[in-house]
Amino acid sequence: MNEPVRFSDKLALIDKVGRELQKRFRYEEIDTFLAEYKISPPGQVDYNSKWVYSKAALKGVPNDTLIKIAEELDINVARAQAHTSVVPQNWKDSKNFRLFISHISKDKDKATRLKNCLRPFAISGFVAHEDIHPTLEWQKEIERALYAMDAFVAIHTVGFSKSFWTQQEVGFAVGRGVKIISLKMGEDPTGF
Predict the structure, then answer these.
(1) Which residues lie below 8 Å from residue 117, measured CB to CB, with a gap of 6+?
(2) What pTM does this model have?
């Protein structure tokens, strides 16, 4: 099995392992399970979530150990990595930080300007209205970008909260647990 190449791949796998440990075990059982892999419990921080506790314990674990744990928990490592290894066309061969820029179509110029301003800082933005090539299926390319992003920016212009697309994108980012930055540009962020 290939090791995760990008750090974001490893974080995604740690997240999946943490969720599985949370689902299966109590805190003491998590400690016992991880001790079999020579992994110590996390420091003396008060954790109110077995998922967060597990992720803290797995921090810094070698990739091969993480993959063994995932396989023992019946986590399909190949599928866990597949979402981050298939990237949209504009991120192919890029090692830059991947930023998904969520916007409504009438404000694609603002999203494009933000993308262009961040480029000199090794941040590669994804702006659907600009980056999806005409021959590629729209929804699939957006999904690839959402799975492969390192962080998410929501440009809250008037109408953003009424768009089904943008609300699904925000929900996806929340579900993935990536860093989310909301830019208020005429409309307050809604939801969580």
Answers:
(1) none
(2) 0.58
